[in-house]
């Protein structure tokens, strides 16, 4: 039995120990306000300052151009699935969607409740083990926007390149936000829930190009209007204050640890170690096309699927938690978000090698 426990959950994910300690230490008296951050009015000078700093730190980490606004929203990425067509499309206008996996399908079915959707390419025929190549995308030049899922959390796929399109490119980056540098100017909008790479549940970050902000259409609650939230510095209503505070700490943690380039290098190092272990064995199997494999959510199977439950139980006993694959997909999934240290993956690889020796 080992003391240290690593959490490979797809989310909410682990947080760095030093961030957890900072939360604990400053909880009773946040920034000398005499009260905890949980009890701060969101309109207080100190809390407004926290929001300004958080946005500034995010802008620095990602080099966000001045013509983009940062919004702090609630409802998770799942709410964004419906809010995108409601905020971005004119009546009757359709949107293009890349059907790359489980989360893209969720985004599509939710968007379809509000507007026509055109699927530009789909990975269904490959059972979502590969991404449709860019030259197969059947883009509609009249679409209101084109939506992609930059990282398919459940299918273990990552889009490696973002095209320059004539329509606004919109990306769900919930599982790989801040894990690699981005060509921001190619995007109309990016959104990401915070609970994987940059904090806890409750906060969804939206980065939107100014020209896409427009008055809320009838039927859209004002709290979910990008324009209304932009106009009020994301304080149209009470923002998720604690989640914002934790994201602030996470952004500073990333800044101290080399920023996005260092996060990207660490993600490559971690995932290479794990994919190599899978590749070098006949006991483990990764059906994903190598070029499309995600460095963030590494999905693999046991060639003897009957051993999956034993694998998961023994892993848990060894301090390797939450390795079960997505409910709809099965197998094993190791989610390697920014706070996951290389030592966690090294331990997993060691465990996998031992397990194969015992059961192979
Ligand atoms: N998109 C992707 C790619 C995800 O991984 C998730 C969460 N697993 C979501 C959307 C949904 O996020 P939320 O639960 O915050 O709505």
From TrEMBL:
Residues annotated as binding pyridoxal 5'-phosphate: 77-78, 103, 153, 172, 195, 237-238
Keyword Aminoacyl-tRNA synthetase attached: no
The EC number(s) this enzyme carries: 2.6.1.52
Catalytic reactions of this protein: 4-(phosphooxy)-L-threonine + 2-oxoglutarate = (R)-3-hydroxy-2-oxo-4-phosphooxybutanoate + L-glutamate; O-phospho-L-serine + 2-oxoglutarate = 3-phosphooxypyruvate + L-glutamate
Residues that bear N6-(pyridoxal phosphate)lysine: 196
Positions with a binding annotation for L-glutamate: 10
Pfam family, one: Aminotran_5
Cofactors (names): pyridoxal 5'-phosphate
Functional summary from the UniProt entry: Catalyzes the reversible conversion of 3-phosphohydroxypyruvate to phosphoserine and of 3-hydroxy-2-oxo-4-phosphonooxybutanoate to phosphohydroxythreonine.
Family: Belongs to the class-V pyridoxal-phosphate-dependent aminotransferase family. SerC subfamily.
Assembly description: Homodimer.
Protein name as it appears in the record: Phosphoserine aminotransferase
Organism from which the protein derives: Stutzerimonas decontaminans
Organism lineage: Bacteria, Pseudomonadati, Pseudomonadota, Gammaproteobacteria, Pseudomonadales
């Amino acid at each position: 039995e080992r003391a240290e426990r690593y959490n490979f959950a797809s989310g909410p994910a682990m947080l760095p120990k030093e961030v957890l300690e900072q939360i604990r230490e400053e909880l009773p008296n946040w920034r000398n306000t005499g009260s905890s951050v949980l009890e701060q009015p969101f309109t207080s000078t100190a809390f407004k300052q926290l929001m300004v700093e958080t946005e500034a730190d995010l802008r620095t980490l990602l080099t966000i151009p001045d013509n983009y606004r940062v919004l702090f929203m609630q409802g998770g990425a799942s709410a964004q699935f419906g809010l995108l067509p409601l905020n971005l499309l004119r009546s009757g206008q359709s949107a293009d969607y890349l059907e790359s996996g489980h989360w893209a399908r969720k985004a599509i079915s939710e968007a379809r409740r509000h507007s026509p959707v055109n699927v530009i390419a789909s990975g269904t025929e490959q059972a979502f083990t590969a991404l449709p190549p860019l030259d197969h995308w059947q883009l509609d030049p009249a679409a209101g926007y084109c939506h992609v899922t930059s990282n398919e959390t459940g299918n273990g796929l990552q889009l490696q390149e973002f095209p320059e399109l004539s329509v606004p490119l919109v990306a769900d980056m919930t599982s790989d936000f801040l894990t690699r540098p981005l060509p921001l100017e190619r995007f109309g909008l990016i959104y990401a829930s915070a609970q994987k790479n940059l904090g806890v549940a409750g906060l969804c970050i939206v980065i939107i190009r100014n020209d896409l902000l427009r008055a809320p259409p009838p039927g859209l609650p004002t709290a979910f209007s990008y324009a209304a939230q932009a106009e009020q510095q994301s304080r149209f209503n009470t923002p998720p204050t604690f989640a914002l505070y934790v994201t602030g700490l996470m952004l500073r943690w990333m800044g101290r640890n080399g920023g996005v380039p260092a996060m990207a290098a660490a993600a490559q190092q971690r995932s290479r170690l794990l994919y190599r272990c899978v590749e070098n064995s006949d006991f483990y199997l990764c059906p994903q096309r190598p070029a499309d494999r995600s460095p963030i959510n590494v999905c693999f199977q046991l060639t003897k699927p009957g051993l999956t439950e034993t694998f998961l139980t023994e892993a848990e006993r060894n301090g390797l938690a939450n390795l079960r694959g997505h409910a709809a997909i099965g197998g094993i999934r190791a989610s390697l978000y920014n706070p996951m240290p290389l030592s966690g993956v090294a331990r997993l690889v060691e465990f996998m090698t031992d397990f194969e020796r015992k059961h192979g």
